[in-house]
Each structure stands twice: as C-alpha cells, then as structure tokens.
Amino acid sequence: MKKIQLIAISLFAVTMIAFVSSLFVSGFNVSSATINTYLDSKGIKSEILKERLENEVADIDFSNSFSATGKIRSVFFESNAVHEAKVLELETNKEWDNANVERQNIVNGKSTAFAYDLMKPSGIGHVYENKGLWLFLTFGLAIIASLIFILINLKVLGPAGIKNTGIYFENSTSRGWIAWVTFSFLVLFYVGLYFFPSVVINWTYIVDPIKDVFGGGGASQWFLYGVLYCTAMTIMGIRMIVKYRHNKYQIVRTISVVFFQVVFAFLLVEILPMFGLPGVDLKNAWPLDYDFLFDWNVTNLLDSGHFGKFVFVWGILLSAVIIPVMVYFFGKRWYCSWVCGCGGLAETLGDPYRQHSDKTVKAWKFERYIIHFVLLFAIFMTIWTGYTSYQQVYFPDMEYNDKVTLLGISSDTIRSWYGFLIGSIFSGVIGTGFYPIFGNRVWCRFGCPLAAYMGLVQRFKSRFRITTNGGQCISCGNCSTYCEQGIDVRAYAQKGQNIIRSSCVGCGVCAAVCPRGVLKLENGPEIKRISSDNPIVLGNDAFTLNSEILKN
C-alpha cells in the first residue's frame, strides 16, 4: 500500500511540475487589432502609448508571459512618464488649459491589469491551443493522485482514532525542505495572483474549459483562484474526514465548510450573473467583506433590482444582527469553523501545519494588539467609504474630490492601503502562504477583523465554552500541540478551567485528539461560564492564586 502511495506522491509532483512549467511553454502575440480595440474601449487617448505598442509589442512573438508582461509594462510606464513631464512643463509655464488636456493622456490604473487585458486574448502555443489536455494533466491527475494517497490511508492508518504519529519527523510537517518549498510556492503564487496577474495568464487558460460551463468569456485570475480554492478544500476535506473519522463533529463541520465554500462562494457567484444578477457570496460578512460599502459595490447592488437591494439589506443584517446573535448562542465557531471560506481552507489545506501555532504569552499579547488594530482600521475605512457611497447615491453630481474626502482624508487612499496591506498581503501572502511555517490560522488569529469582532462577543457575551475535566487530564499535551489558535489548552485542562478565549474558533480538534475525553465543547448558561471557583487562575503573564478562594 505504501508503494502505491509513493507512486501517487510522484504523480502529484509531476502534475505540479507540469503546472509550473505551463507558464513557460506557451507564448503571446498581441495583434494591432487587439491593441486598437482595447485602447478605444477604455477611452485611452495617448498617441505615444499607441505608437509604442504598435512598434514594440504588436505582432511580436513573446515566448512566455514574463517577457510579454515586462515589455508591455515598460511601454506603459515610459509613455506615462513622457506625458507627466509635459504636464509639469506646461504647469511651469502656467499653461493650465494645455496641462489639463495633456493630463488626459496619462493612463490611470495598474500596469499589470493593462498588460493582462492585452495578453488574455493573445495567447499562442501549446497551453492556449490544448486547454482541455492541460486541465487534465494538472488538475485532473493531481486530484487522482491525491485521492489515491488519501483513501489508501483508510488501510495504512488502521482503525479510526488519533492519527498524528511522526508529524515532527516528516519534512512536510516539521518545517523541513518540503515545507519550505511549499511555503515558497504559495507565497509566489499569491504575489502573482494579487500583483502580477498577467504573469499567470497561462494558468487561466487551463481553467477556461470550466469557465465555459458558466457562460464563457474567459477565466480571470479570480476564477482560477476559485477553482484552485474549491479543489484544495474538497480534496483536503476528504483527507480531514479520513483522518478524524472517529469524531462525528469533525466530519460534519468539514462537510459543512466545504459545502458553503463550493456552493455559496463559487457556484452561486458564477451562476447568478448568468441570470443578470450580481454574483455575490451571500455568506461573506463585513468587516471580512471589507468592500461591502465601497461606492461601486453599493451602486451596483442598488441598480440590480430587487435582488440587489435584498443582498444589500442582507449584508447589513448579517453583520449587525445575525452574527452577534449566533455568536451569543454558539460562539464564533458557527462561522469560523462551519461557514467561512478562509477558515475552511485553514482547516483542510492547512490541517497538516496546525501544530506550528505559537503558544507563548508573547504571541498571545501580540495577537490581541494586532487583530484589534486591524478591526479599528476596518471600521475607520468603512466610515470613510460609507461616506463616499452616501454622497454617490444621494448627490451623484457632486465634485469627485468632495465625494471621497472627509476631514481632509481621501477614502480612495484609505481603501487602497487597506486593500494592499490587509486584503492582499496579510490575508493572502502571509495568511495562506505562511501555512507551512507558522501554522494554518495566521490570518484568522492575527489579522481577520471579523474574527476580532466575533471574538469580543464570544469573550464577554456568549454561551459557548470548552469545559474541562481536570481530574482526567494526563498532561499529554495533544490539545495544546494541535490548537491552531495558539491556546495552551493543557494549562486550562490541568486546572479544570473553562476555555473562553476570544480567539477560540471551536474547531474541536483539541477534544478530538484528547485520549481521555477531558475536553467538551458546550453551549450552556452564562452563569459561571467564567469560572472563579478554582484556586489557581491562568492570567496573561503567569499562574496566580485566587485570593477569593484563599479567603474562604
């Protein structure tokens, strides 16, 4: 059986090599017609840009996406630099009208998005011409290899039960070379996805056949991400079920979180636009859904008929009413471990790395400062973007600068920095890319503003707690080792204290790996939820004596 698993691992490695190599085996040839059509559709007036694209890009064969992206971006920047120099010269000469006319030739937006739009319809070579074949060679064979490896574990691992033997001796789960290779791939993938989408265009070609099922139009980098996300969660979700098949809670919540991701965050988002409706993830809530009150989103929803207005009202109710009420009754686990796509990826793809979460008090203190700072940042940004949306809806003819400026600060500036620092770097590059080194809940623990919001409710006004039977604890440390949120669960269990930490996502793995049944996830009365009847109290810095007990 293990030989078959070795073959499966080898096949998976080959598919990954094929996936990466696809970036280099297919090129691009941007035609003059494509350039002219695109510039006209975007209202770009720069003759310098058009001429340089015609001379340096049009009808030239580029061997891969890197060379094509580099040349197009170079032309983009250099053309803008010429116009900016002319604007400066005209302003120096106080030719204001001519300066304003010249400024219209400057192309706004991201150079990588500009390159992507020109390159997407201009592919040539093996990947572009054989999309279905490459879909099978990458996604198809990777899925087959993964399922073979995972399902054979039903035999290899023996009877159902705790299966964590050897995790600190495997290169893949103990920060060995495999973990570092995985870390490097994930980080580079997210950098490409967020900041250089034109570089990964060949990967979007591979999933074009899937996009055709949803009306075609060519897959974007976000469709590619959605397919990868759902595939990874589904396959690793099966692994999760096989590993924890002795625990019904783990089985049911894994099925739940995969269902919500595949159906709500992917299928509905793709199917709704086929009926002329906005493609929205109905489970995504503010402040995780930080662009909810952006002017373009608000106007799009309000202009989309009754369904769009329903989505807008639903989004407000979900964040302001449903979430705190559900957290009161069930803790933040109802969302973080049963519904959320970020948590779902962490629980499935990130499960092999959960033991890497830092359990130190220093990490706990840092966690509380940083995650609540992100929440405040999100609130601050939402006030500004909400102001802009209000002006856009009720005063559409107002000057643009007046719409976006509140107290001298531009909402465009705030949301661009939030999108870059939190929406891209923290949640993507760090939040997922760092799984193999720092654990699977880096984003959820340190950066998610929704987790911070729900954590405050869970800590001070909730019925949820993890109860402990200290008399049964043998101090094996399994619970602390596998707590993805960095909670030293054993320290609570040894003292028989309830665990009510705001960061706890109620994944239940601590209870699943406990050999003595010490831990139990409960929703009980608020009375004595925060227990004060223990002689020793676990604090931020140390264990302290409970003076109230000593008095008695």
Summarize the structure.
With about 550 residues, the chain is mainly alpha-helical. The chain has helices at about 1-20, 30-40, 45-55, 65-90, 95-105, 110-120, 125-130, 130-155, 175-195, 200-205, 210-215, 220-245, 250-270, 295-300, 305-330, 335, 340-350, 360-395, 400-405, 410-430, 435-440, 440-445, 450-460, 480, 490-495, 510, 545-550, and strands spanning about 25-30, 125, 405, 410, 465-470, 520-525, 535-540, 545.
Please tally the helical runs, counting DSSP H or I stretches of 4 or more residues.
27
What characterizes the major β-sheet? Answer: 2 strands, antiparallel
Rg, alpha carbons:
26 Å
Overall residue-averaged pLDDT value: 91
Strand order of the largest sheet: 1-2
Q: How many beta strands in the DSSP annotation?
A: 8
Strand coverage percent: under 5%
Compute the separation of the termini in Å.
62 Å
Helix/sheet category: mainly alpha
Shape: globular
The helix fraction, in percent, is: 55-70%
Low-confidence stretches: 535-543, 545-550
Characterization of the model:
Among the domains are: 1-149, no CATH class; 463-551, Alpha-Beta Plaits (2-Layer Sandwich). It has 27 helices and 8 strands. The protein has helices spanning 2-21, 32-41, 47-56, 65-92, 96-103, 111-119, 126-129, 131-156, 177-195, 201-206, 208-213, 221-243, 248-271, 295-302, 305-330, 333-336, 341-348, 361-394, 400-404, 411-430, 435-438, 442-446, 449-460, 478-481, 489-495, 509-512, 547-551, and strands at residues 26-28, 123-125, 405-406, 409-410, 464-468, 519-523, 536-538, 543-545. The strands form 4 sheets. The chain has a two-stranded antiparallel ribbon. A two-stranded antiparallel sheet has the order 3-4. Strands 5-6 form a two-stranded antiparallel ribbon. The protein is globular.
